[in-house]
Amino acid sequence: xxxxxxxxxxxxxxxxxxxxxxxxxxxxxxxxxxxxxxxxxxxxxxxxxxxxxxxxxxxxxxxxxxxxxxxxxxxxxxxxxxxxxxxxxxxxxxxxxxxxxxxxxxx
Length: 107
What we know:
Blueprint: H1 5-25, H2 37-75, H3 80-88, H4 91-106
Helix pairs in contact: 1-2, 2-3, 2-4
């Protein structure tokens, strides 16, 4: 639980921004036939959730790996390349979240 008020406001605004950006990015004119607006809203929310959850989980993983890697690097400098690889692996989570958000938006 976040106890600092400023941190709570920053995290909350960042979370809302990550939920709203895909909705604005996927905005388009309605086709000629009548389409229920709730479908577009649900797609935008799902795309935003896919992107934001994957980005936050990758950030959490990178924070943990970075903290452990700094301690390991201080004791054993020869494992530097392994730490760089381990730090880059969580980015795959973000890329997969982006692909899923794109697939949801174009479906």
